[in-house]
Amino acid sequence: MIEVEKKFILSEQDKKQLTKDAEFLSERVFSDIYYDTEKFLLTSQDKWLRSRDRVFELKLPLHNGVERLADQYDELEDEQKIRRALNLLPNKNLADDLIKAGYFPFCTCKTTRRKYKKGLFIIDLDIVDFQDFTYNIAEIELLVSDKSEIESAIEMIMDFAKSQNLTITPARGKIIEYLKRAKPNHYQTLVKKKVVKDF
C-alpha cells in the first residue's frame, strides 16, 4: 500500500472539529529510533529508516521535490526488502549489520498517538516527546494501492481538510522539526538537497 498524507498543526478548536463524529480507533505509545550515515546518505534522498518498538521500517519517497501538497511514501516493513534497498547482505541481525555498514541513530523520540477514522480518512493526532521539547502534529492520510491513485488522493485530502475548516499551511514533520531545532547542520543539508522546504 502507498501512504498519502498531509501534515497539519492544529489548534484545540481544530482538533475538536476534526474528531467530532469521528470513530476513535486507538491510542498507543511507541518509541522510534531513526538511522542515517555520517554524511546523511538516506535522509538527503528523503529516505527514512527507523526502528519502531524494535521493528525496522524504511520509507521511500514517491513524490518529487519540495513543492508538493502532500507526502507519498512506499513503506517497506519486510526485513529482506529493507536489506535489498540498502544493499545489505543477508545476515543474522539487522541492527548490528546497520552499525557495521556505517548507519547510526540520529534521533530518538516517543510518540503518543490517538488514531481516528472519519469517512475514508485516517487521522493521527501525535504528541511527540524528544526529551528537550514536545511537538504536536496531526496527519490526515489515505492509503492507495497504486501510484495512479496518488493525485486524486491528495485532492481528496485537501478537500476534506477544507471541509473541516482547517488552515492549510506548511507543517514540518516531527523529525524535520527535531533536526531544525537540534541538528541544524543536518537540517540545512536536507534544505540544500531539496528534501525539505525551509520556512
From TrEMBL:
- Any single Pfam family the record assigns to this protein: CYTH
Q: Where does the source fall among the domains of life?
A: Bacteria
MF-aspect GO terms: magnesium ion binding; thiamine triphosphate phosphatase activity
CYTH domain location, by residue?
1-182
Q: List the transmembrane segments.
A: none
Record-level GO BP terms: thiamine diphosphate metabolic process
Q: Report what the protein is called.
A: CYTH domain-containing protein
